[in-house]
Amino acid sequence: MGGRRKIGAGSRSEKMAALREGLKTLPYLVRREPEMLRVLRSIVEIESFSTDKSAVDRCGLLVAGEFRRRGGRVRILRNAARGNLVRIEIGAGRARESGQLLVLGHLDTVYPSGTLRRMPFRVARGRAWGPGTFDMKGGIVLALFAVEALRALGISPRRKIVFLWTGDEEIGSAASRATIEKEARRSQAVLVLEPALGLDGRAKTQRKGIGEIEILVHGRAAHAGVDPERGVNAAHELALQIARLMKMNDPRRGITVQANVISGGTATNVVPEFARAQVDVRFARARDGRGLQRRLLGLRPILKGARIEVRGGLNRPPLERRGSAWLAALTPDCKKQSEGL
Ligand SMILES: [Zn+2]
Fold it and tell me: Which of 64, 89, 188, 311 could bond 214 through an S-S bridge, CB–CB 3.0 to 4.6 Å?
């Protein structure tokens, strides 16, 4: 967020005025619930397993049509390997209001096509069920009807709002990451409509960064009985390295380093020439992530004759609370106000 002026960073009365305007949409949305469920059903019933491009594309087209019908300016961003991205804009976005708002989510699900047959869409006990309903077609429908409500009630957002629905989130977003980062950089705030946390619907305001590294240890094979002293035991070297990694854990700072997949060796009577570990790294602060990466990539062998290769690195930066606190601060107001309706 840098030093830019943040949305909602105005005076308390400004904030309350904006909230009051936003809350006008609530009674409208309550009335639209049957229609929301109908649209949700139609989106869920187009299954969209991440690796099934044509299925994800079909789902994207349906979502695009629903937004277009409600005044959204739609663009389909084609993608050769994975599902196309759907980008929608609303609002004039006056030049003075720097920065757009980005609403982000994904069209794909973890359910292979055909899951619907044994897990049909249904509403029971006050909840909607079906593959991808929770994560996160429900979120797309909320965004869609927020757009509808603004239009129906004649509320025009001061900023341009961009909705970006990607097609490969559940398999790591490799095909959409560059677009997400480009849009996010232009945005004053990014709201991700993934499911809320827990049954009381909490918003996630912080999240650890993630790194994945692989440590490859090369030693020297030797017969364990005849001439073990001629060998360099790669598994021993790896064990020493793992002991070193474990010392990097610092739960109080939100740092975890865990070697979770280990392999090496060929036979019980052979000193292993090779061993390998896959290491999961998590960190609450971006600065700590950079430090960890430096330390991990700089690992040096401990045993004489061993060689180490470290691959990989940081994969996702953390969402730090200092970047999202202003948004979290608005939430209790929202809740209090909506309870008065
Ligand atoms: Zn999701």
Answer: 311
| pLDDT at site 93 | 60
Output the CA 174–ligand 1 centroid distance in Å: 15
CATH code, domain carrying 99? 3.40.630.10
Q: How far apart are CA 56 and CA 51, in angstroms?
A: 8
Measure 134 CA to ligand 1 centroid, in angstroms: 8
Ligand 1 center–CA 10 separation, angstroms: 32
**How far is Cα 56 from Cα 115, in angstroms, rounded to an integer?**
15
What is the domain count for the chain?
A: 2
338 inside domain: no
* Helices 138-152 and 53-69: angle between axes, nearest 10 degrees: 20
Domain contains 139: yes
- Say yes or no: 39 and 187 in one domain: yes
| Residue pLDDT, tens place only, 295-315 | 999 999 999 999 999 999 999
Please give the distance, rounded to the nearest whole angstrom, from the Cα atom of residue 142 to the centre of ligand 1: 14
Instruction: List pLDDT tens digits, range 260-294.
Output: 999 999 999 999 999 999 999 999 999 999 999 99
